[in-house]
Design a protein that fits this description.
The protein is built from nine helices and ten strands. The protein is globular, with a radius of gyration of 18 Å. Helix 4 packs across helix 5. It is of the alpha/beta class.
Length: about 260
Amino acid sequence: MPTANLNASPGAGPIVAVQGLRKTFSTATVLDGIDLTIAAGEVVAIIGRSGSGKSTLLRCINGLEGIDGGTIHAAGMPVVPSRYRDVRRSVGMIFQSFNLFPHLTALENVALPQIVMNKVPREVANANAARLLERVHLSERARAYPAKLSGGQQQRVAIARALSLDPQVLLCDEITSALDPEMVGEVLDVVAGLARGGMTMLLVTHEMGFARQAADRVIFMHEGKVCEQGPPAQLFDHPQTAPLQQFVQSIRHQGHEARG
């Protein structure tokens, strides 16, 4: 079972607060008035069809996309251009494409953010990186370059790198979508361990079984809006809106086809 709010203190405000968020690309509205709060220690899965705005929402929270309206606060600070560097120290992000430096070893990839962002001495950063690689079960691959790692191993290095700045919030954007099916489990096991440890996480995912098991709350996005949200069992077993009902039905249909 999920362990929500392990780091929250009584009466503490949300660690992420989004109000009236709007984002457009050219003439297309991608986010249309998003209101959302995340408590410390909460694990929130964001689901929805392609193009519903899920990944854009994460990128806005991390300051990778500018916004056209509304406000975002994360880890106690406004997400505005003048604070992007500070925000990214406290709000880590893991991408579906790994984004590792190919000319650096696994250890060096994990150490680099500490050296560049926090001016940590290389020896200390390397020691920290070694501990983080152990945490994601990759100690034996510390000296390997990305090209010599499987997709699942590369993504676990990316997770260790995101943890290297000791973030208060971790954003995960479809982190298993580029993996072969047999590698998905090893990455989700690491993420589930972080969830059990009280890490605040927002996960855009198409792994509905994982969302049901690991998340405290599931958010369903549709056409740039938060269409429905609640505990996993409520959303998956008792969807209230037509878009979510259709989405859940399509998932069940795909599941039947896969088993057939």
